[in-house]
Amino acid sequence: MGWLRDLMSQSESGHRSYGALARAALYSTDWPAESQIGERSLSALFSKLDRDQGLEWLAERPGVQRVLSHVLQVPLEDVRSSADPGRLSKTQSARLLRLRDVRFARALDLVEEPLCPGIPEAVLQPGAYRATFWRAASGAGRSLVGRFLEARGQAHFIVARSFEQAVRELPARGPAFIELTHQQSGPLPPPPRSDLCVAAPFRPRSNEWQVVESPPVASYLEALIAWVAARLPNGGRFDPERTLLWLKRKLALSDAIDGLGCVLGLCGLSDELGASTLHGKSLTEVATRFVRERVASSIEAESPNAAWLKKHSFELLLGMGRRLLTDSDLPWDEPRSFDDWLALVPGEHQRGADLDWLRLSLTNTDVSIRPADVERAARKIPPGAFRIVRTFERAGLIGGSADALSLGPRFLASSLRREALRSLVSGSSLEWGEALLRGHAAPLVADEVRQCVAQQGARFVDQVLELEGSSDPAQCAALELTLRAAGAALLTRVELHADSLEALWNDALDTHCSFDAELPRARVEYAGDQLEHALLSEGAFYLAALSVSGELGQRAGKRHAVLRPWQLSESSAALRAICDVMQRDLTAERAPARWQLGVYALVQRLRGELGSLTGGDSPHPLERPALIAEEAVHGVLSWETVCGIHEPPSALAGLFSLVENGDFSRSELAQAIWNAWDAAGRPSAGAAFLLPEAAERAWFWPHIPGELLSALLADARAVAPYDLFGDEQWQAFAGALERGEIGRVDSVALAVLPDALLEQVLARTPATPELFAELWHRAPERALGETARELAERGDEAARLELLLDCAPSASLPALVALCNERANLHDLPKHKLLVLRHFLHGLLRERRPGYRAAFERLRKIDADLTRARPEPH
After folding, report:
1. Which residue from 521, 523, 743, 824 puts its CA 20 to 30 A from 616's CA?
2. What global pTM score does this model have?
3. Beta sheet of 132-135, edge-to-edge order
């Protein structure tokens, strides 16, 4: 008997079933309005609670506890102690995992059941660990994997603040899964041994670790929702189809759904509130309702400040989120102490009113004020920081151990961060400039500012310029980031007003630093993990300076010999050094593709204004695309110019982007490169991008000149991406076929071969299984005709007939047998062909394939004819 059944049996209330108890509880006038649930669902929930499943749900709802105490006529303390999840045995709690964010789901048996979708396979195989590093943000399932492996005895699970601490706790032998809860300053040290997997929310910045990334949410969203649905009781509010549709829409519109934990939390919310309630709501609206309901269910309705806390709870959390970005050196997701959370409460709420003093002073000064009026007023007064944070802790919005409290669930933390960033950047640049001075917040703010400049244009720039002066580091950081974002926006053809650009340029030029014999620098620069964000890189500063100054023309704005080279007559060593930095920072994978292409377009403009950037025969890598385009347009392209285009890797994309909107087409550019390669003797050095398997093949093979293709096809070793061929390429293929230069056509070519060429291939190439399989697939009537022709031929060569019969698909077998039945004297076939045909008919019968009954009859008839045709033995 479970604890709830035990209380019901001891009670004199008369409620002996879960249904009766649920009905009585819901009819109670004290049932909390925020805990909306149907009678059947509540009855099912009571059944789970009695089996110690979902105890957190009851533990988090004091109002429901009071109703149960009243309905069952038992002491409130008996209900509270029974609802305490901590009373479960250590063994049971280690094996059974309660999904806190999907509160009504049955517990996960870590020993008997597999984990949910969304976890990288590599981290679940401790035997295959090879100094594995899982870059897993908060909510990616780090703790879930650790507990799973530990429960199964597959790996030791270590939770530590730092890698050094984790190494000290390593066992002598056996695989270990290490979860790091805090950021690591500097690169991760080398692994002391290989059978480790470290899970942490940062990059190791060391080549000695094999990095594993979490899969994108879209790749497992549908499977995860099905997994959640299978764990929820029947009769609940969870609608898998509507939840999937809602989440897919939100996933396409927002980056706030950032991982496994976020999706699980939203599934749990869909189960509690119903998918119809979420439909049409933004993530912020959903998070706001969730926070208010959690707070309402965790505080006594008659307690002081209750009404105020319910109404302003989300706005309070939002204010704390903004301060987390501007005033805290700890990253957003990193656990904090209770005192740290107190410090994040907005200043106006740091101290609450003394309610006892308020009651005394008001009642003594005005006899017309009644005590009830005082109590009503007291409930509307904001509480102090301690009560605010304690309320959020009791509501389960801030949780964890005493010195490591984190914001949750994950969907709330992610939504709140998104909203805090929007709110912050829409306000004073001095405030979000403070966030730029925080290592963890700078990349987040940079992303938001970039979007604002791209969407709002000069309006956003002008707001930043309203605060004049650069004596404050926060305002200086905001000004320089706006310059960076404006430069990036110009590269993507965003129009910015000339007056705004000039004012931005002049103000930003006043802030930069100049050092003797060195390149000018931004005054506020970034380091470490911040440089993972391309906009914060040194190269982005130079790109922005060149881009913005290039829009100012010759007269507007202040001059600068290095950052504004457009007014010079030739290139300089400083400009070449700037190009080196841009190549390093903005042509790598971390830079958005549109910026990479913008760099090459900008360098092409510089080359047009100043001539060669190097002043010699060897071009700078960033100007090679412009040089290739120039030579191709003028018909003088040489392979010597082209063969260095593979470095940097984005140069080819940059090259094709340069001719995208010009009179010289991409097709003409590709043909010019093919011709240059051919004229140079078709060298292999520097020509990897022309290979049939190259990632860039779609840029070149649809445009390869027919004469060159014919020469390549004549080489028996040559292969080609036939799926990219156009008319000219297939004509070259047909010519090579006609001349007998193609000995065998592979299956890849046959699959995309134009119908007009199929006959030519049949006539001029040897018979192969691939050829006849394609013939049966594409032209079954033609294949039947080929078979009939082979049966009519009197020669005894049976290889072609055998291939035709073996390659016939099941759908064509009845027609083949019918073809055989049309020939009366099949026993007169030449010996080898007759043997092949009999084996074919016998095989249909043995395997019971389509037409086997007719095959049986035809085989019997052939054998009877053969028996009659044999001479009688003497």
Report:
1. 521
2. 0.75
3. 156-160, 176-180, 196-200, 132-135, 210-213
